[in-house]
Amino acid sequence: MKVKICGITDVHTAIAAARYGADAIGFVFAESKRKVSIGKAKEIVSFLPPEVLKVGVFVNESREEVERIASIVGLTHIQLHGDESPSFSELISLPIIKAISFQSNDGLAVFNQFPSEYILLDGPKGKYRGGNGKAFDWNEVNAALLEEKKVILAGGLQVSNVEQAIKIINPYMVDVSSGVETDGIKDLVKIKEFIEKVKTLGGNVNEHLYITK
């Protein structure tokens, strides 16, 4: 089972997360309390091993700006968390993760045809499009409607509930942000515990080499 740690804003936390076994690191470029500057994200990426995915999170941004930031930072994947259309996604040069706030199974099958390899199921919208730390009823999800996609599960995950979530949804990857924070700051102990928990459930821990400078 793969793990994405989202909302990273500093080098130290990113290196630690990769060392603990994170498969993907998320950088938020939309309005958020975890928004990171382009320069800082570029610096962080320079310390990460090549096998770790570098995901940029955008909300209703222009294609030109998405591509510009991706090129400068060195992103490998683009997460679209707004109202982006299928045609918009097809114009992006990098692999797409399309995020949706799960409300019901009505219309979920439409996203099976969305031009993206990944669909991210998130909790209800709050002040921001994502990272609100709100879970939803995983039992309501008909995962068969997304059988063509690699499903990433997000929304209110933490070490105490991720096992249940994985058993119900059986996602390709789990995505956590606020669930590994203390007082709004990424907590290395919680990150390590979360990754170890997921890797224990999903099989062998993927130990990454990591780069120090």
Percent range for β-strand residues: 15-25%
> Could you report the average pLDDT, rounded to the nearest whole number?
90
- In CATH, what is the homologous superfamily? Aldolase class I
Count helical runs.
6
Cα gyration radius (Å) = 16 Å
Which characteristics define this entry?
about 210 residues; disordered C terminus; alpha/beta; globular; TIM Barrel; two-stranded antiparallel sheet; about 20% strand
Helix and strand arrangement:
Elements: E1 2-6, H1 11-20, E2 24-28, H2 38-46, E3 53-58, H3 63-73, E4 77-80, H4 86-91, E5 96-101, E6 118-122, E7 150-153, H5 162-169, E8 173-176, E9 181-182, E10 185-186, H6 188-202
Parallel strand pairs: 1-2, 1-8, 2-3, 3-4, 4-5, 5-6, 6-7, 7-8
Antiparallel strand pairs: 9-10
Helix pairs in contact: 1-2, 1-6
Summary, kept brief:
This protein is α/β, with parallel strands linked by helices and 213 residues long. The chain has six helices and ten strands, in the order E-H-E-H-E-H-E-H-E-E-E-H-E-E-E-H.
